[in-house]
Amino acid sequence: MRKLTAILLLGAALIGGQSAARADGLNIVFTHHSSASNTFWQAVKKGFDDGCAKVEATCNMVFTQTEGSIEQQVAKMRAALAAKPDALLTSIVDDHAFDDVIKEARDAGVVVIAVNVDDTEGAKGNARQAFVGQGFKPAGYSLAKAISESFPKDGPIKVLVGISAPGQNWSETRGAGVMQFLEEYKAAHKDRDVSWERIDSGTDLAITSDRVGAYLNAHPDTTAYFDTGFWCAGVARVLGDRGVAPGKVLLGGFDLVPEVLQQMQKGYVQALVDQQPYMQGFMPVMEVYLNKKLGLAPSDIDTGQGIVRQKDADAIMALSAQGMR
Asked: Which of 38, 61, 306, 325 could be cross-linked to 319 through a Cys-Cys bond (beta carbons 3.0 to 4.6 Å apart)?
């Protein structure tokens, strides 16, 4: 608790311009699994860049060419480490692919913090020193619970769960949280026909639109669709193009990017989970700085699972335009 308080106080002081903190040549590299076209990661980059500017560190965020490419991410991590940075921030979307390179980084004295996605076993499964990001299973559970408030009061409940990136930690674990809630909901409503299926829904708006759109054609009685990312925005487009009224198929997902917020404003998306991407970019930089300046060990920071609804969309869109959300 004292560690987090120190980080928050430092961040507040820096943002407020109360002190000029120098990182004395500190070099931080941030590699992850997404391409530059992913709007969520632009908000992470904004936080990362702002944090680096506050402590006057030399920083570089490295995107993949192909969305979700583990192979490209590992290759870019190795290239970054060849330049001997002080710290490596990285997402760990696979429980095994990054183990060797992260151990090599730690053996070389590089500070390593997992950001956005962690090994499913946490520190037991990987040599990274801390994780800054969302608890995915509780977030999936919270999303399903929020959407369930709009389930019809009688008749069957038929749900589709979109696993955006099968096999990747963030997507599988969020989906598991959704399905855990559905299991509990079914057990608590034994008089109702409650069922669900999972689908490989993709990490592209057009692909998700096609795949889920085809499913809805074959299953017009679907009650709700849960996406493990923001690509439910593509499903909302399909529903609008088909003249389906908002709320006829309930939609929920993650991340407050403009595309999905616009669909929420129209009433097609009922709930989103915010994992605060700006914070995921900013706070790891503060942890690296405190480690190098004061010897404080990096520690886990949960960036939240706040539920966002239509009434919140306008205010968040204003922040999104500034790159903060």
From this structure: 325
- For 42, counting Cβ atoms within 10 Å of its Cβ (0-12 exposed, 13-18 middle, 19+ buried), the class is middle
Cβ distance 223 to 194 under 8 Å? Answer: no
Backbone angles phi, psi at 47, to 5 degrees: -65, -40
In the prediction, which pLDDT does 4 show? 56
> What pLDDT is attached to residue 18?
42
| Beta-bridge partners for 253 | 272
- Six-digit token pair at 171? 């997507």
Rounded to whole angstroms, the Cα distance separating 325 from 41 reads 10
Classify residue 156 by its DSSP letter.
-
SS3 87: strand
**Number of other residues whose CB lies within 10 A of the CB of residue 167:** 13
Find residue 10's DSSP bridge partners.
none
Question: The tokens of 261 are what?
Answer: 């917020």
pLDDT tens across 177-199, in order?
A: 999 999 999 999 999 999 999 99
| pLDDT tens-digit map of 91-134 | 999 999 999 999 999 999 999 999 999 999 999 999 999 999 99
* Count of C-beta atoms within a 10 Å radius of residue 317: 16
What residue type is 289 in one-letter code?
Y
Residue pair 160/224 in contact by the 8 Å Cβ criterion: yes
Strand, coil or helix: 111: strand
Provide the pairing of β-strand 306-308 with 271-274. Answer: antiparallel
Cβ-based neighbour number of residue 148 at 10 Å: 21
SS3 label, residue 31:
strand
Q: Which candidate, 198, 192, 194, places its Cα nearest to that of 225?
A: 198
Q: Which two tokens stand for residue 245?
A: 């009224």
Single pTM value for the model: 0.83
pLDDT reading at 3 higher than 90: no
Query: Which amino acid is residue 130, in one-letter code?
Result: A
Strands, sheet with 130-133, edge to edge from the N-terminal-most edge strand: 58-62, 27-31, 87-90, 111-115, 130-133, 301-302
pLDDT at 15: 44
